[in-house]
Amino acid sequence: MDVEGCLGCDVVSGRLQAPGGVLHQTPSWIVNHVVGSMNLGTLVLSPRDHVVAVADLTIEAADELGPLLRRTAQVVESILDPEQTYVSSWAHGEYGRKHLHIVVQPITSATVAAYDGALSEQLQAKMLLSGNESGQADVEQFCAQAAERFSNLNQ
Hints:
With 155 residues, the protein is of the alpha+beta class.
């Protein structure tokens, strides 16, 4: 199902261009750089279908998720060398569930310091409220490297 106006569906369908474009895809998933005010290198795994919960994934999508999540973390870590890589699930909208997003986010001590020492969900909340977005050129450069690394991991 494709829901117009749903951020995930709009990116999957091409109605909305994610910064840096689609970096990698499988039959059930796409990977792109986050849209909005998160730090550089934060990648999002989104199901191609309008799925709102991990429990609702097809068997095929669930089978792809583990290896794809691992590859995505490897790509992020190989480019940015973070001290920590967060993995979180976002699917909570203002009025209920929304398109499932699995977020792979590189965290450095500089990132933590920039947000007053906040960690985990508090760090993510501060980032989202900050309105600070990575520069387009930086995102495009990171995404070009990430797309190349995904390609090399598939060989």
